[in-house]
Design brief:
Layout (H helix, E strand, L loop, with lengths): L22 H12 L17 H8 L5 H8 L14 H7 L3 E4 L2 E7 L7 E8 L15 E5 L2 E2 L1 E2 L5 E2 L7 E10 L2 E12 L1 E4 L3 E9 L2 E8 L7 H14 L3 E5 L8 H11 L15 H8 L1
Parallel strand pairs: 12-13
Antiparallel strand pairs: 1-10, 2-3, 3-4, 4-5, 4-8, 6-7, 8-9, 11-12
């Protein structure tokens, strides 16, 4: 989930016309007002700075808005927040469109609390650059461009090569609990890609049960027809059970989640499907 801050006059603390001295001030004030863990992030507390000079000196100790943003996040609780310097890129991502190599991967520490890390491939997007390379689900990588993966004290990954348009993954084997480099590598390049979140739909016969399996990887409004077609397929096949796999679902539209639930069952018409939970500041405003 990315942050796209849209400011409204929610309280007397904000003027009708909002002005910021710099992008870094925009980042701090946005998080101070809207961040879910605002009261748990020491440098976001309302009483953190005695004067505006103190505040400006603080934010200017950070080289970029991105580095300030990362510092202010509450780790490890917050595994979701990201920042984009182009809102149109964020909007595209929320619709399933982005520049990608085609690998969806996870990252783990080698040992609990340790700094060494490794990555593993969760799935490969069809018709992507990765789909043409010798890499597949379950493969492990220990380095990017020859630099071993590590995690710093704040939980941020080094190196940052995975954000480059082209990078090389250095592969490894899982050897009796150890991550052992195997000398293999694969170079991947990002291209513009629109991801159909309906990744797998099929039928399994288990005893006397006909089980539909759906691997659904994002609540993207542009692909509701594909989701509807998947359920039309299941209905046509006469399934008796459904497995809905959301392990790698990155989130998206609550409206699409509502439509998905309605496709599964229609027995809860008129009942509340979901509630939004904001930080204490915003909840106080909503509940006033």
């Amino acid at each position: 989930v990315g942050f796209l801050f849209t400011f409204q006059n929610c309280s007397d603390d904000f003027d009708d016309v909002l002005k910021f001295s710099s992008p870094k001030e925009f980042v701090w004030r946005g998080l101070n007002q809207y961040y879910y863990w605002q009261k748990n992030s020491p440098d976001l507390l309302d009483n953190r700075f005695l004067t505006n000079t103190d505040f400006q000196n603080f934010i200017n100790t950070y080289q970029s808005p991105e580095s300030l943003f990362k510092h202010l996040l509450l780790r490890p609780n917050d595994r979701f927040s990201v920042i984009y310097n182009d809102y149109s890129v964020l909007e595209a991502v929320l619709q399933g469109s982005s520049k990608t190599t085609g690998i969806d991967y996870g990252l783990k520490r080698k040992t609990a609390g340790g700094s060494e890390a490794f990555g593993f491939v969760r799935y490969i997007l069809p018709n992507s650059d990765a789909s043409t390379k010798n890499i597949q689900r379950g493969d492990i990588f220990y380095a990017v461009d020859g630099v071993p993966l590590s995690v710093n004290a704040q939980g941020f990954l080094n190196p940052s090569g995975l954000s480059n348009d082209t990078f090389t993954l250095n592969l490894a084997d899982y050897d009796n609990g150890a991550i052992t480099p195997n000398g293999l590598s694969v170079t991947l390049s990002k291209t513009a890609y629109s991801e159909n979140p309906v990744y797998i739909k099929n039928i399994h016969i288990v005893g006397n049960k006909k089980v539909g399996y759906l691997m659904y990887n994002g609540f993207f409004a542009n692909y509701v027809n594909e989701l509807n077609n998947a359920f039309a397929y299941f209905k046509g096949e006469g399934i008796t059970h459904l497995v809905l796999d959301l392990r790698y679902n990155s989130g998206g539209s609550v409206n699409v989640a509502t439509e998905l639930a309605s496709m599964i069952t229609g027995q809860f018409n008129g009942q509340i499907f979901a509630k939004q939970q904001w930080n204490e500041k915003i909840m106080a405003f909503f509940n006033a």
